[in-house]
Amino acid sequence: MRKFYYYLTTCILLFTSCKEEQKTVETxxxxxxxxxxxIYADDLGYGELxxxxxxxxxxxxLDKLANGGMRFTNGYASxxxxxxSRYALLTGVYPWRNKSAKILPGTAPLIIATAQTTIPKMLKxxxxxxxxxxxxxxxxxxxxxxxxxxxxxxPNEVGFDYSHILAATQDRVPTVYIEDGHVVxxxxxxxxxxxxxxxxxxxxxxxxxxxxxxxxxxxxHNNSIVNGIPRIGFMKGGEAAKWVDxxxxxxxxxxxxxxxxxxxDEPFFLYYALQQPHVPRTPHTRFVGSSGMGPRGxxxxxxxxxxxxFIKTLEAEGLLENTLIVFSSDNGPVVNDGYYDDSEEKLGNxxxxxxxxxxxxxxxxxxxxxxxFTYWKGKISPGVSDAMVSQLDLFSSLAALVESxxxxxxxxxxxxxxxxxxxxxxAEMIIEATSRTAFRKGxxxxxxxxxxxxxxxxxxxxLANSDEYLLxxxxxxxxxxxxxxxxNPEKLQEMITAYEAIRGKENTEIQQLELK
Length: 516
Fold this sequence. Notes:
Distance between the termini: 94 Å
Strand order of the largest sheet: 6-5-4-3-11-1-12-13-2-14
Order of helices and strands: HEHEHHEEEEEEEEHEHEEEHHEEEEEEHH
Strand content: 15-25%
Number of strands: 20
Largest sheet: 10 strands, mixed
Helix content: 25-40%
């Protein structure tokens, strides 16, 4: 019997040892998976960073990442406005395929289907913890949100294990933070009401009560007043839950840092969506005057500092060598976008779009060509690539990185390009701006004819509406000054044919008719 128990004990010990060894191997494999962080700016133009040629603004932290990683000179957002680009980024699907993927009010329903494939969903299947901190603007709920109960569906229902967001934009109500579907610091005795059609009785507005404002509205921002700033939409209640605009960047940075610390022992995906330099530009007092360009320049300096502090956290936690960082912006720049904030008066020699034409809302290059770089300490060698790449391609490329077989029709697998091991990018792609689409192929850009004003006079940006086709050779004419449509009809027809092969000839014709 003693021999029996001896052998039994030995077997148990060996079995336990093997299980522990297997567990150690599994833990080691889990830790070997790279963390993935996407840092997404809001309305940051191609010419805003030193690494992209800016001389008037100082962005040392972003420049260090851009120059220390793979910097793309032909990196694109999918759209010249925010919601469509964010939709494309997370789903790998062209936003024009979803008619709801347009600039959304704060009360819009979720536009990503809960059954739809997304980057966080794909990564969760590969063992990642997934989180979003910052701006969302992809809708919440099903169309009639009760802000005083758990809000669903939202980020948590489309793949994020953790979410801490603002619902739409800083200039739209509701002006509250939402963590995992719950409004932060909500007093149940002071319920929130939101309406985008009419005001609540007795509530002051920017239009009727200018004496209450610390920031004056220029256009489109004259509804409910929160913290002395007039907003888009009307809101009542929720006083204890309302954010302080000047503290927003610090608030989200602290949460992004906390997320990293909590999940440092497992592979994680963090979508860190900055609110800068979108309006209202409200730098913390530490950054007021830091740029010499007024609030717009100051919040870019502020955003750069936030990124620097976030990188310090990765480094302090020993994660920088095992973290792939992707940085980009949801669309191109806009200077005056609704408030009197000295953005035009103090712009000086700074060129937010660099040498590009247009800006936010525009089909010209500055609408969608944005800062775009990847950084992975010790894994990506410093370099510059002229290859064409879209934020759409992050889905399939990240899937390849984690050995997932998932993909989408519109997302190209360009992992080697992102890692600096190849210079082969996209051959062609469609870009979008406010329900209009255009086409990029090789060195060429083609914009179909659209009716409407040539210029958005409120924001002083050319929209690329024309009664004729526009065709540009970007290699020779980066500023899109010379229309070659009439002098090069063969190239124009080649571009139209390739464009319609993706967009569909019938859809193209309908699109142009709808805009007439």
